[in-house]
Amino acid sequence: MLCGGKKSYFVAAVCIIILTSMVTLSYLRLQRFSHLPKIIQEGSRCRGKTTNSTITALKDNRTFIISPYFDDRESKVTRVIGIVHHKDVKQLYCWFCCPPDGKIYASKAKIDVHSDRFGFPYGAADIVCLEPENCDPTHVSIHQSPHGNIDQLPRFEIKNRKAETFSVDFTVCISAMFGNYNNVLQFIQSMEMYKILGVQKVVIYKNNCSHLMEKVLKFYVEEGTVEIIPWPINSHLKVSSKWHFMQDGTHIGYYGQITALNDCIYRNMQRSKFVVLNDADEIILPLKHPDWKSMMSSLQEQNPGTGIFLFENHIFPETVSTHMFNISSWNTVPGVNILQHVHREPDRKDVFNPKKMIIDPRKVIQTSVHSVLRAYGNSVNVPMDVALIYHCRVPLQGNLPRESLIRDTTLWRYNLSLVMNVNKVLYQTVL
């Protein structure tokens, strides 16, 4: 028998560690068991109304469902992209109906509110449920309880159930078009630059825009370049046009931008090799390569295993212009002519320079705006001599004299194709 001295302390410490480990393992087993799907009804029929709305409020009015996606990267789960109140929503269940026998399973959800809420009471959330082992459900319902009538619950189609081959190399996700958006000329220029650089699809979460902008969007939808996702978030929540909470009674920041970005990643996970997360006034400009395909091929070769590539944002103030490319027909179109803005602000010392991303969507679990929150692959900061983000907007350093700005005409390398392509679109839509 050991008694007294250092040996007894050591034995006590070992005993505590073993006991703690056993309790922790037991707790984890119980937790997993509590989340296993359980049969709650038998011999029913898989029915109920399938909702096609982008945003669906549950009866608690604290939970909003965007879309469920099949995700088997770790285990066989349905991952529902949603918006929840970070304090009030504590318990949710996925209801799966399994044909042909009609068994209905309830699976307790893990509610994972994304860490980047920026102080707002509502935030993006992953509602994750284990699927029944011998069933590949096509639809799911979300409910606060494992009891009730499935026929009275909205049904959501589970996307990404079937594996697909990539239909495009690059998809751009524009997370929230709002505020009666009317920057028509710059939008068309960005769209045509994306296409020159190798983009085949642009997904836009549209809250609202001007009548003129609607005509332009209609053109790009019919062309096959743009996919519009209706985003009526202000019908459900008090939205802020700011990214951080201002104690002003709003519920969620920047029109639910983070939720839209996450949905866009999962929506394009099986159909796009890369997903680009940026705004309509931002263009990732390669400096060493002619287009994104050659740039990304080089970056992947240099950084094996990397799934997230971050590019520095650089402001080209719309208040500083050049007389070049003053095209008279463009002057009647609302918006900024980016070809006239080739002076960028210098980096500010000790200030975080935000980044935007090109990602492999299959390696991302959760994203924020300027970085990913959870991923399987590594992240790499792309050097500025390889590429930078051309961001033409109101200045951040408005007091700087023109001579303190850096003249950067990288954009002009594309001017012949860009001018010709923009003119074609304008004459078919606006002029």
From TrEMBL:
Keyword hit for rRNA processing: no
Keywords: Glycosyltransferase, Membrane, Transferase, Transmembrane, Transmembrane helix
Pfam families given in the database record: Glyco_transf_92 (PF01697)
GO MF: glycosyltransferase activity
Domain of life, per lineage: Eukaryota
Subcellular location: Membrane
Residue ranges crossing the lipid bilayer per the database entry: 9-28
Record's bilayer topology term: Single-pass membrane protein
Class of the enzyme per the UniProt entry, highest EC level: transferase
EC numbers, comma separated: 2.4.1.-
GO terms under cellular component: cytoplasm; membrane
Family: Belongs to the glycosyltransferase 92 family.
Protein name in UniProt: Glycosyltransferase family 92 protein
Designated gene of the protein: galt-1_1
